[in-house]
Write a structure and sequence with these properties.
4 helices, two-stranded antiparallel ribbon, about 20% helix, single chain, about 150 residues, six-stranded mixed β-sheet, alpha/beta
Length: about 150
């Protein structure tokens, strides 16, 4: 994977900054969102234009969608907010789920572990590399058509 990682001179810590650095649409940025789950966390990898739907999240996970504070994100994922990579995680600290909002794209760009990096992956590669527990539908606000 190392040869496929894009590293930037500027920050790619937000969807908008990453899209600008990569020259792609914001929706193709695969953002990794971190939620409390007892002593561990739930990571949702979603399209850049998607927002968590609190009702869907609670229905699926049986808990409120409570985002982790930055220090907990770093402790549980090994990555700081803005560079959370959905793979290469400390063992036993996170359950990763991939949201269906990503499936409309052939490739997407998750962070590669820093606030100035990304890697282009197919949805299948992202699913496999992240050890995703499954495809979920917990987001809203995204369009289903591909662009």
């Amino acid at each position: 994977m190392e040869g496929r990682i894009h590293e930037f001179d500027s920050s790619s810590a937000t969807v908008a900054l990453a899209a600008e650095a990569l020259g792609t649409q914001p929706a193709r940025i695969a953002k990794t969102l971190s939620f409390a789950n007892g002593d561990a966390c739930i990571l949702i990898v979603a399209a850049g234009d998607a927002k968590i739907d609190n009702r869907k999240f609670k229905d699926l996970f049986g808990r409120k969608a409570s985002m982790l504070p930055p220090e907990e994100v770093l402790r549980l994922t090994g990555h700081a907010v803005g560079g959370v990579c959905p793979f290469a995680l400390p063992e036993g600290t996170a359950q990763v789920y991939t949201d269906i909002s990503l499936q409309r794209f052939e490739t997407v760009y998750p962070a590669a572990g820093s606030s100035n990096s990304a890697v282009e992956l197919s949805c299948e590669e992202l699913f496999a590399l992240s050890g995703s527990c499954g495809w979920v539908d917990v987001c809203k606000g995204w369009q289903e058509e591909t662009t």
